[in-house]
Amino acid sequence: MFDCVVSEFNIDPARTIMVGDRLDTDILMGNSCGLTTLLTLTGVTTLDEVKGHQESDCPARQSLVPDYYVDSIADLLPALGD
What we know:
The protein is an alpha/beta fold. It is 43% helix and 15% strand. It has a 3-stranded parallel beta sheet, with helices on one face. Strand 1 (17-20), helix 2 (23-32) and strand 2 (36-40) form a beta-alpha-beta unit. It is flat, with a radius of gyration of 13 Å. The termini are far apart. This is Phosphoglycolate phosphatase. It is found in: Cell membrane; Cytoplasm, Cytosol.
């Protein structure tokens, strides 16, 4: 799916971040496509769940670990104001 988006909109994956609230869909897709990933903790995922995947030796679980996380997407608003 991401390949279609890239070709249609001329997106540079190196300048793209996948933002989502689910590890098993949003973050997995971002990591699989080589994107930087940002998890928002407003969905079903908890920080304890992320930490469990991060501490696992299982490659499948490691692929669910985001690069960054925020409590809410609203936490990014101050950075966008400049």
